[in-house]
Recover the amino acids of this structure.
């Protein structure tokens, strides 16, 4: 980012604060939130907004900013908290999550004033949009990148693979996709529905430069997202993650895919999070 | 810059709507450096081969992938380019319907989606390729403008107007080669503004796309039997020209809408829905395609079957006037 670059420790601290905010906002909205898939992508978002991406907090419209698209739109808990950390969304706006008429709802709504590049929620659409934006950037001789976060369940969508073919065919080295490979989707384990075991091989066979990392290891993510990215083909980082990461009773427990956090559960969750430090 | 004259109108008529779209795009390119044109492996079928050869850096064939077509087009439009994306009407409006809804609709991205070969013109290729419901689908998306040009000259006008129009649009191309001519000289075309082609007193025929020319001819035939028919080109289905429609409602006792589209959700439905609450509201008859999967055949055979010819329209108007 433009401004203070965070080191590994700084990003880990940022991830911790994001998780705490995720619990706070889930409690405050008094309704169900996509906790599991929001918690799994926290380190990915912290690395992107804490170190990798170029943007200007005071000018979210900056034309040369890196573009971020949350294709797995239900992961907003990870996005909004990253945007607060990045000083693009202020506390007052953040407190309006899931309030009537709020700009911050359960899926991203395009609003560049708040650093939200695109509207999402219908899975399988973000990568195509990024392909177009990446093509446009190259045509304009611009050097910013497109970062797209997808879910492993989302990769069930055929349109993801239409876009994947297109990105490699067009040699778009300015796209970096991250798959939050948490092993679960809405109805259960991906293994029992559409297996995500061979995801890396699939992306490779579609012509992408593929890296596999532990999606909660900041240093691995940093290396995968920054070092020696090829110019002539897109990169996909398949990040092994844990759904519900950081809150022991939520981890790999798909009941927390979309669930309500009661006061008692919140306190238990906060204690579990504190115990991870 | 292409100009409508009796001579060009004749030439273009032979080419038909698809080829004309490509020519209009090629013509636009010379003074629109931000133009980007996409196809889902139907570039040649969209008449875009000359554009593709002349401006290879501004043309993308995304392959047989209409969902990606709309997403990629939207990403390019988001970065400020003037973007046209085309495919056969059902593929671009229904295969990629949700991409259109999210990108052109929800995000209001400035893409011109062009449905080629809409209506029945694909003939023996069958219902899989027909554009029967495309207007209904596109009309229902908030923020979408829907335009259906009447002839090749109006395709040129529409493409020009679309290029400087800020907002998403669906352009529906109907009719085939050797299509009838409506306009033989330049005229004032504005998106959202209907055009009075002929004044009358007994019936107002409201048509668009391929049905404008036969409606005009039907009016001539009706005149011979003493019926005075006005003919109106409502090329823009959405937003519908309510001022013009109000003037029609004030002057006529019968409206007949004519379109090469399902009677559900198209021009006739838009007119009926708009006038439904008006105090002065003439009786309306909607001509179009019935709500069935018909057997298919040659284009002109099908138009004749569904009464979408000059004689068929005149007959329907005559019957409506008797009621």
């Amino acid at each position: 980012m433009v401004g203070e670059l965070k080191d590994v420790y700084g990003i880990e601290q940022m991830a911790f604060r994001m998780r705490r905010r995720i619990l706070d906002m889930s409690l405050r909205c008094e309704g169900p939130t996509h906790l599991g898939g929001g918690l799994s992508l926290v380190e990915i978002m912290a690395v992107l907004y804490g170190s990798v991406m170029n943007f200007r907090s005071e000018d979210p419209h900056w034309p040369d900013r890196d573009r971020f698209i949350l294709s797995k739109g239900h992961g907003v808990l990870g996005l909004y908290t990253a945007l607060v950390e990045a000083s693009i969304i202020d506390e007052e706006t953040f407190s309006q999550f899931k309030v009537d008429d709020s700009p911050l709802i359960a899926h991203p709504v395009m609003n560049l004033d708040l650093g939200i590049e695109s509207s999402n929620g219908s899975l399988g659409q973000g990568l195509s949009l990024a392909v177009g934006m990446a093509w446009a950037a190259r045509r304009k001789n611009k050097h910013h990148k497109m970062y797209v976060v997808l879910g492993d369940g989302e990769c069930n969508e055929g349109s993801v693979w239409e876009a994947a073919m297109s990105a490699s065919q067009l040699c778009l080295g300015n796209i970096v996709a991250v798959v939050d490979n948490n092993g679960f989707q809405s109805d259960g384990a991906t293994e029992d529905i559409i297996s995500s075991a061979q995801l890396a091989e699939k992306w490779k066979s579609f012509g992408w430069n593929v890296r596999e990392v532990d999606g909660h290891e900041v240093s691995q993510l940093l290396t995968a997202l920054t070092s020696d990215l090829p110019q002539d083909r897109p990169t996909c980082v398949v990040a092994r993650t844990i759904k519900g990461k950081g809150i022991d009773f939520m981890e790999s427990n798909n009941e927390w895919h979309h669930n309500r956090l009661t006061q008692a559960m919140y306190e238990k969750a906060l204690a579990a999070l504190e115990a991870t430090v | 810059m292409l100009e409508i004259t009796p001579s060009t109108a004749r030439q273009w008529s032979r080419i038909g709507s698809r080829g004309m779209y490509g020519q209009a795009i090629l013509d636009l390119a010379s003074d629109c450096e931000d133009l980007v044109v996409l196809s889902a492996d139907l570039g040649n079928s969209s008449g875009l081969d000359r554009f593709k050869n002349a401006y290879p850096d501004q043309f993308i064939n995304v392959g047989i992938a209409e969902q990606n077509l709309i997403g990629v087009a939207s990403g390019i439009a988001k970065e400020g380019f003037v973007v046209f994306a085309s495919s056969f009407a059902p593929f671009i409006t229904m295969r990629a319907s949700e991409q259109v809804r999210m990108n052109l609709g929800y995000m209001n991205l400035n893409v011109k989606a062009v449905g080629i070969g809409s209506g029945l013109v694909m003939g023996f290729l069958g219902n899989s390729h027909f554009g029967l419901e495309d207007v209904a689908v596109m009309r229902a998306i908030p923020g979408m403008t829907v335009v259906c040009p009447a002839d090749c000259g109006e395709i040129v006008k529409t493409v020009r107007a679309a290029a400087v129009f800020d907002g998403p649009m669906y352009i529906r191309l109907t009719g085939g080669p050797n299509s009838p001519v409506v306009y033989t000289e330049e005229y004032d075309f504005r998106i959202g503004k209907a055009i009075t082609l002929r004044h009358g007193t007994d019936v107002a025929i409201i048509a668009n796309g391929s049905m404008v020319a036969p409606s005009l001819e039907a009016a001539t035939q009706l005149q011979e039997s003493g019926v005075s028919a006005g003919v109106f080109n409502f090329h823009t289905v959405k937003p519908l020209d309510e001022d013009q429609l109000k003037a029609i409602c004030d002057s006529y006792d019968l409206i007949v809408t004519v379109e090469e589209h399902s009677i559900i959700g198209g021009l006739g439905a838009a007119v009926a829905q708009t006038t439904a609450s008006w105090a002065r509201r003439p009786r309306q008859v909607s001509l179009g395609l019935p709500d069935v999967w018909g057997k298919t055949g040659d284009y002109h055979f099908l138009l004749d079957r569904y009464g979408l010819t000059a004689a068929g329209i005149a007959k329907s108007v005559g019957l409506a006037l008797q009621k």
Notes: The mean pLDDT of chain B is 97. The interface with chain A takes residues 36, 57, 60, 62-63, 65, 67-68, 70-81, 98-99, 102-103, 106-107 of chain B (CB under 8 Å).
